[in-house]
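User: Structure tokens for both sequences below?

Assistant:
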Amino acid sequence: MAKVIITGGTGLIGKALSALLVAKGYQVIILSRRAFLKDRKKSPNIDYAQWDIEKQTIDTSAIRNADYIINLAGAGVADERWTKKRKKEILESRTKTSELLIRALKHNPNKIKAVINSSAIGWYGADPVVPNPKTFIETEPAAADFLGETCRAWEESIDPVKELGIRLVKIRTGIVLSNAGGAFKEFRKPVKFGIAAILGNGKQIISWLHIDDICRIYLFALENESVHGIYNAVAPKPVSNKELTIQIAKIEKGNFSVPLHVPSFLLKMVLGEMSVEVLKSTTVNCEKIRMAGFNFIFPSIESALGDLLKKDNSQNNLPAQ
């Protein structure tokens, strides 16, 4: 039974990915600052090991015993306003994680076959304003904004893994849709009150993917030795903010919802600098991961939202709309 270390294993993707790996027969080791002793009883195939990014300490037995590392660690980009302190935390929670992992790999005998490292499509910045804009592919340079620079430093910080002779894969992830939290939960909140809240003019493109597909991409990267380097993790069919919002409202409420534009200036007042991200259009291409052999279960927004709502209704014992 192969063992997989997951950093950020208690987050949105980490929890779902841990469940998938266990279902596929893997042993999962979640690195955490806390022992999570009570959680150890929940699954015989999930264990916990301690680490502390600030103190740069780690349970070296986890490194020595594992076969793979999936690095998802990092402070949530959209969890708080972007103060100077928060920006520093967002950056260092990623780069210091890489430093700790690399140091542990260098100074401890190990059998790690691959490191699968999270990144984000924030690398690309906004779509260029031209008559026929092309979609962003993996060879594009990093944007010269906060998220672009953060993603660049994040990806560069894990590069020394290659010098150790370990296969390295970087997954630039789009907006993940999940019932367990994240952006989808926020999009749904106004719909409960019959309001389809369109952000700004609603024309900005969202490059998204279903939670099941992002977990399957990590599994695909782990299991296929030919997969290495950078891959975009987004569904084949990006949608506009307006299209996504209207589609959610349609599935949830049928025709009983009212479209309402939230003005850009109001978003800027509430979110500060972070409003740039919710108003930004980023059209990202997923052809590289598809050419590598990966197939999306939920390629369209209709299929993804239909599945998520069905599962949510099932959990709450509600009839599907």
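Moving on to the next sequence.
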Amino acid sequence: EQAKRVALIVGMVEFVVSLPLFWSYDPAGPYLQNDLVFPWIMDWGIYYRIGLDGISLFMVLLTTFLLPLAVLGSWTYIETREKAYYAMLLALTSGVVGVFVSLDMFLFYVFWEMMLIPMYFLIGIWGGKERIYAAVKFFLYTAVGSLLMLVAILYLYFKFHSLTGQLSFSYFDLLQLAPNGGLSGTEQGWLFAAFALAFAVKVPVFPFHTWLPAAHVQAPTAGSVVLAGVLLKMGTYGFLRFALPLFPAAATASGTVTLFMVLGLIGIIYTALVAAVQPNAKRLVAYTSVAHLGFAVLGIFAFNLQGVQGALLLMIAHGVSTPMLFFLLGMLYERRHTYEIEDFGGLAASMPVFSTMLVFAGLASIGLPGTSGFVSEFLILIGTFQVRPWIALFAASGVIFAAFYMLPMVQSVAFNKLDRPANRGIPDLGRREIAILVPLVVLILWIGIYPRPFLDRMEPSALRLVDYMNGAAAAPPAAAPVAVAPTNAESMNDRTER
């Protein structure tokens, strides 16, 4: 009976505990901060190593920020198996945070798979009428990519052992292979493809996006919020943290860059057109995620500071504006039990606060100047224009397409005729619902008006990655002491001193 209260307290405590990371992170300080390492499975060279840099910092904060809001959003929505539901939500958050802070490849894979199970159950148990289909599709798509990535991780592990005689899953150890000639061009190509497939499915990049609309439509509101807010960012984060630095030659090849930029561009334009004809408001918002993260893919593969910073900022911006839309649609569903756009109209008369929030969220989603989406997309387009001008020109049309699918939906729901009796007596948003939306509004405006605190903390890590990928850095983008399992003749204290 107290499950949701316990979950809310835990979520708020987690956010409060993580919040000082924003102020304590020193952009001029060490590359990695708040890093910890403990021996785990020593016979296999596995350590429990975690840490933060400017790339992962905001992903952790975004996750802990959304957790208490997701619990509040489920307060009256979830009425069955509440204890199991909130346990799954907390376990999901643990897996996501673990992915963003892991600096050991074995540990990273454990958290990557750990995240999959709770999300499967959130969709499959508390989802809509076709929840089993959506849950299985989500699981199969993610699992196939993940297994190929596991094969690539094991290949790196044994390759490192064959070259050094040491066993290590350390991210920093494996990072040394490609720059030091440990991996041939062919090996880099195949290994990059395995990692890239796992991350492309998670983003999702066109044409691996078909699982997303089904998962979003069938998932409960909090499931959609976490899925759009942070789970999709695991894909873009995976590219920045693992796929690019581990295999720089394969990632920066002209063909690879063109391929991913073209796929990102198709995702921007194609899914925007598909979204525009959706009769279901939740499915429409689901397709917008593919379009928005298509911009992030462009920024990542531009390999310049503006593009990478824009992609990182867009990951935050999308992680705020799209969850806000899902929260609003969930609140509407609790009142009318439908997501069909034609079932609404004229809600501005009966629900003025809701309609105001819907207009704001819609404008933030399409990147109106003064909101978080504008700053991030502008930086991405600048970065893309420097390397592929023609792609940047086509991608800029995505802003127009965004208005093409979002504004008619907002107009139909809020401003058309109030011609359905069921919409006349709908109660407006309550205090709990407003409390969910206000923090999202504040963050959207903060990033849109004054993004400097975010950009300053991202810049050193983004610049180091860009320099490394372009061959300007002498060391990999996260140089750190090698984490090698001590032999029988070498104690842990001896290795720590060394």
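User: Anything stand out in the second?

Assistant: The mean pLDDT is 87.
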